């Protein structure tokens, strides 16, 4: 709606104007009325009209004075002047002062009013279009200049310049406040970027990157002469120049203050963290690339020092060995702990394996070898225990690739521990007594290997090579329960583990543990546990919270 204000000292005249047309029908809204110019100004401050229809002959502040004031202070408001037939001088002055048109009161009718309102609306519309186009052009120009500045910083950091004269010319052309010496470059890397790419769409990733750039740019602009550019995906470079700062220590303080503000803001608004590596002071601008490469190398300290960190100088690590393999005694201890389901001993052993790795900051090659050997032990024990290796890992998880996803040594260690915990859980479920007869032990092994399939007593008997009636009798004698009851017990125990780990939905678990019917799964689960799978899941969720 176009808002219209009527200013006239004659109330009858104001009423006549208000009732002359259906304002809303034609896209207008009477936002107020006033008896003189001064009162009109008060209403303008409150209502912000687009059009003012004003009489010329009024007390306190006449039409000419009123229009003159609006022209100087509210140039966007379109003014339509009203005057009598004998007030031509008023009309002439109103047009000089900025009125878009006028109407003689004795000729005022609906058609004349709509025509003059249309003239005012056309002016408003054209001005809006011009402003929109101007704003778009200004925005495009700013974005273009911003991109050119970022491109220059990116080329500078990447070592794209050989001639200092070219660098000086670029700085001048782009209007950058960059000193030629005493600079600091910061290499930046977003944490957990691999997991972000798994969770978010391409559009979502671009949004994260652009939001990080916007937040960083705003903070760097506040702090002084500093610039940021996106090198590739999760990697960024910041260039700090001294500007008015008088000393290197003052400049480093400014860099730390900027980085800490960025760290705080991205946590609060983007729910992400990043690592920052600060170079030492750069003597010449032509050495920015060399110092950036060193700063980027220092980001690898994240693997041992952790995420959401700031690194300032290269830490020389005291590596015990370049290539390290798993000690045979450690392997024996792990196998023994798994065999006898000694959880505490198992966890202690694995942590003891990783402690010197963390303390001495071993090479990535050494860590990779250790992890591969630990995974090989898991897979070997799983096969020997009749455990389906696919059940140890999440859907589609390839262990040798999975461990490469983690960005810190603590994450790698915790993932290894979680894999061993899964195997231990399956071993606890699948313990077979040595007192059982050979057919029973083979039948139990058959159940543990095939519980997720649609198996029966006849299938087990055929696999073992005995009569099904004989197997049924000997199995119940050894175990105290029948084949099907034992099978359901194993399926329920596995279902409990899947629920506790919260990796799957109940319907997926039903099929994963061998039940064809969702309803039957609920019935059997309640018979063994006393509550339904849903109730069990609710208890697990509450414990986690």
Polypeptide structure, described:
This protein is an alpha/beta fold and 545 residues long. It folds into 4 domains: 2-129, Rossmann fold; 158-311, Reverse transcriptase/Diguanylate cyclase domain (Alpha-Beta Plaits, 2-Layer Sandwich), CATH 3.30.70.270; 328-429; 438-544, Orthogonal Bundle (Arc Repressor Mutant, subunit A). Helix content is 61%, strand content 10%. The chain is built from 24 helices and 10 strands. The strands form 2 sheets. The chain has a 5-stranded parallel sheet, with helices on both faces. Helix 12 (328-339) packs antiparallel against helix 13 and helix 18 packs across helix 19 (457-464). The longest helix is centred in the N-terminal third of the chain and has 48 residues, at 110-157. The two termini are 52 Å apart. 28% of the residues are buried. Mean pLDDT is 87; it is low at 315-321.
- In percent terms, what proportion of residues is strand? 5-15%
**Mean pLDDT across all residues, rounded?**
87
Question: What would you call the quaternary organization?
Answer: single chain
Instruction: Outline the biggest β-sheet.
Output: 5 strands, parallel
What structural category do the secondary elements indicate? alpha/beta
In the predicted model, the low-confidence regions spanning at least 5 consecutive residues are: 315-321
């Amino acid at each position: 709606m176009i808002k219209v204000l009527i200013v006239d000292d004659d109330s009858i005249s104001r009423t006549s104007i208000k009732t002359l047309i259906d304002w809303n029908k034609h896209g207008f809204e009477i936002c107020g009325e006033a008896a003189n110019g001064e009162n009109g100004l008060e209403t303008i401050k409150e209502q912000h009209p687009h059009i003012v229809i004003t009489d010329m002959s009024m007390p306190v502040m006449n039409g000419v004075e009123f229009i003159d004031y609006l022209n100087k202070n509210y140039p966007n408001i379109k003014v339509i002047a009203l005057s009598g037939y004998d007030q031509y001088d008023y009309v002439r002055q109103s047009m000089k002062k900025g009125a878009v048109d006028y109407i003689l009161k004795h000729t005022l009718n609906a058609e004349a009013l709509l025509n003059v309102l249309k003239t005012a609306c056309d002016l408003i519309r054209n001005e809006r279009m011009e402003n929109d186009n101007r704003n778009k052009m200004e925005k495009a120009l700013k974005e273009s200049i911003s991109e050119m500045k970022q491109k220059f910083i990116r080329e500078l950091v990447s070592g794209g310049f050989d001639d200092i004269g070219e660098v000086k010319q670029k700085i001048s052309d782009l209007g950058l406040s960059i000193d030629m010496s005493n600079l600091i470059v910061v290499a930046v890397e977003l944490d957990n970027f691999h997991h972000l790419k798994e969770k978010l769409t391409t559009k979502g990733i671009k949004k994260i990157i652009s939001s990080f750039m916007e937040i960083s740019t705003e903070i760097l602009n506040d702090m002084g002469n500093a610039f940021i550019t996106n090198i590739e995906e999760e990697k960024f470079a910041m260039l700090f120049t001294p500007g008015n700062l008088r000393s290197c220590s003052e400049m480093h303080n400014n860099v730390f203050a900027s980085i800490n503000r960025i760290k705080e803001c991205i946590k609060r608004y983007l729910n992400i963290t990043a690592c920052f590596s600060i170079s030492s002071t750069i003597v010449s601008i032509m050495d920015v690339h060399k110092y950036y490469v060193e700063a980027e190398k220092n980001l690898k300290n994240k693997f041992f020092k952790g995420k959401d960190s700031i690194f300032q100088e290269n830490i020389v690590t005291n590596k015990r060995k370049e290539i390290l393999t798993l000690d045979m005694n450690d392997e024996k201890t792990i196998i023994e702990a798994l065999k006898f389901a000694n959880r505490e001993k198992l966890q202690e052993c694995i942590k003891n394996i990783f402690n010197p790795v963390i303390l001495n900051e071993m090479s990535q090659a050494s860590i990779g070898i250790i992890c591969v050997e630990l995974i090989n032990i898991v897979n070997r024990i799983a096969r020997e225990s009749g455990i389906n290796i696919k059940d140890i890992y999440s859907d589609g998880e390839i262990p040798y690739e999975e461990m490469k996803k983690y960005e810190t040594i603590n994450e790698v260690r915790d993932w290894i521990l979680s894999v061993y915990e899964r195997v231990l859980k399956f071993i606890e479920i699948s313990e077979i007594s040595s007192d059982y007869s050979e057919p029973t032990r083979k039948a139990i092994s058959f159940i543990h290997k095939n519980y997720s399939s649609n198996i029966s007593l006849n299938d087990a008997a055929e696999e073992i090579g005995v009569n099904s009636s004989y197997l049924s009798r000997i199995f119940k004698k050894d175990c105290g329960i029948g084949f099907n009851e034992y099978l359901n017990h194993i399926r329920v125990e596995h279902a409990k583990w899947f629920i506790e780990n919260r990796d799957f939905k109940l319907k997926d678990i039903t099929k994963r543990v061998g039940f064809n019917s969702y309803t039957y799964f609920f019935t059997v689960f309640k018979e063994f546990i006393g509550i339904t799978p849903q109730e069990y899941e609710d208890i697990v969720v509450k414990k986690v919270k």
